[in-house]
């Protein structure tokens, strides 16, 4: 699996419409996703998977404003809109691009999953690979999501124990079984296990909201300003692991702290127009798992969520320092966060051959 900073052929996304996860029938989320798609399309082509019902609206919203690269809309049925997790994880062998089609169970299946059913979402990766005429590795019986893994492209993988060892993913496998499956599919040699991710992250604490590589041997780690916040112990525990870890090439890791936004909650108004459905019930007491680590690298760009927080610009400045050859573009992140993720969760890079 190449690192995200390697050249992309295009980015895949899914159009949000699920009314029990996205308020007002998904309209505000569609505007937010369209802003992300357009921001990326100024750096590389984008393909958006859309249901038959939403095809005309998505095309009208996505394809009428000029962008440097095209935004294409393709009809693929989905259950929700998290292409990081339902799209393929693309891998390369120097000649060919192929895709891993992880078994998807909506972040926990019948033991804490976020909606039923998830059959259409589980079929997304296979359909994308068929459209692209790329070979597919289906992991029947092995549950994984793209947001649960981050690689440096040089043999090292970052994951969290909270997610991968959760019995709602692969209870038949222990840490060793999970490691050997990931080694085989991703061709990694070294797996670094962080204990926790972001507090109340409904994916069971995906690593892509907590920590990522920014260069070989260097990581960015979500860091709270407040020592009394429960997140502090999670970030501190990750720092301790990263401080003693060695990557696949034998390098010690340089850790760059990326501040978190202040803790956010959904307002009653934001929850009021959610439809009743099979999606997990949401309340205003739920702490939102906002994090700037959920940024996305595209060809020449860094697309990072902003929340109207003083740390928005601090995070953007740190990212500009870490990626000096790329343009940092801030996009509104709150609406996507209300649905449970952010920019990285809704995008999937397809590497250039
Ligand atoms: O973090 C992700 N990769 C996806 C978030 C999914 C949230 C579902 N409501």
Outline:
The protein has 353 residues and is an alpha/beta fold. It contains eleven helices and 18 strands. Bound molecules: 6-aminohexanamide (KQY).
List its traits:
single chain; 353 residues; alpha/beta; 4-stranded mixed beta sheet
Strand and helix layout:
Blueprint (H helix, E strand, L loop, with lengths): L7 E7 L12 H15 L4 E5 L4 H9 L7 E5 L7 H4 L2 E4 L4 E7 L15 H4 L1 H9 L3 E8 L6 E2 L4 E5 H4 L10 H12 L3 E5 L16 E5 L2 E6 L6 H15 L9 E6 L4 E2 L2 H5 L14 E2 L7 E3 L2 E6 L4 H12 L4 E6 L1 H5 L9 E4 L2
Parallel strand pairs: 1-2, 2-3, 5-6, 8-9, 11-12, 16-17
Antiparallel strand pairs: 1-18, 4-5, 7-8, 10-11, 13-14, 15-16
The structure holds 6-aminohexanamide.
Order of helices and strands: EHEHEHEEHHEEEHHEEEHEEHEEEHEHE
Task: Please summarize the sheet with the most strands.
Answer: 4 strands, mixed
Computed CA radius of gyration, to the nearest angstrom: 19 Å
Q: Low-confidence parts, pLDDT < 50 over ≥5 residues?
A: none
| Strand line-up of the largest beta sheet | 3-2-1-18
First-residue to last-residue Cα separation? 12 Å
The percent range for strand residues is 15-25%
Helical content class: 25-40%
Which small compounds were modeled alongside the protein?
6-aminohexanamide
Describe this structure in words.
The chain has 353 residues and is α/β, with parallel strands linked by helices. It contains eleven helices and 18 strands. The strands form six sheets. Strands 3-2-1-18 form a four-stranded mixed beta sheet. A hairpin with a 4-residue loop joins strand 4 and strand 5 (97-103). The longest helix is centred in the N-terminal third of the chain and has 15 residues, at 27-41. The two termini are 12 Å apart. The mean pLDDT is 97. The protein binds 6-aminohexanamide (KQY). 6-aminohexanamide binds at residues 21, 82, 84-85, 114, 147, 202-203, 206, 208-209, 339-341, 345.
């Amino acid at each position: 699996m190449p690192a995200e900073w390697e050249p992309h052929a295009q980015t895949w996304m899914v159009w949000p419409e699920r009314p029990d996860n996205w308020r007002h029938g998904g309209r505000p989320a569609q505007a937010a996703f369209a802003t992300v798609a357009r921001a990326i399309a100024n750096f590389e082509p984008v393909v958006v998977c859309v249901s038959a019902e939403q095809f005309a609206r998505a095309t009208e919203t996505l394809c009428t404003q000029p962008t440097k690269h095209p935004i294409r809309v393709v009809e693929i049925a989905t259950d929700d809109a998290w292409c990081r997790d339902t799209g393929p994880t693309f891998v390369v062998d120097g000649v060919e691009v192929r895709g891993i089609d992880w078994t998807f169970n909506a972040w926990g299946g019948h033991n804490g999953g976020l909606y039923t059913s998830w059959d259409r979402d589980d079929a997304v990766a296979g359909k994308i690979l068929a459209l692209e005429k790329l070979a597919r590795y289906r992991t029947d019986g092995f549950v994984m999501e793209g947001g649960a893994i981050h690689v440096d492209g040089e043999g090292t993988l970052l994951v969290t124990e909270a997610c991968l060892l959760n019995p709602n993913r692969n209870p038949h496998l222990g840490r060793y079984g999970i490691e050997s499956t990931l080694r085989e599919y991703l061709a990694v040699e070294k797996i670094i296990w962080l204990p926790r991710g972001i507090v109340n992250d409904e994916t069971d604490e995906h690593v892509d909201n907590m920590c990522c590589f920014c260069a070989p041997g260097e990581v960015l780690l979500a860091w709270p300003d407040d020592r009394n916040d429960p997140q502090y112990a999670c970030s501190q525990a990750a720092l301790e692991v990263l401080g003693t870890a060695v990557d696949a090439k034998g390098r010690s890791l340089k850790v760059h702290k990326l501040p978190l936004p202040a803790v956010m909650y959904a307002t009653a108004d934001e929850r009021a127009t959610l439809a009743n459905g099979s999606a997990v019930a949401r309340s205003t007491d739920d702490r939102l798992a906002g994090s700037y680590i959920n940024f996305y690298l595209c060809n020449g760009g860094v697309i990072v969520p902003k929340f109207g927080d003083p740390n928005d610009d601090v995070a953007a400045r740190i990212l500009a320092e870490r990626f000096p050859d790329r343009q940092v573009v801030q996009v509104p992140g709150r609406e996507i966060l209300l649905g449970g993720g952010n920019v990285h969760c809704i995008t999937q890079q397809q590497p250039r051959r």
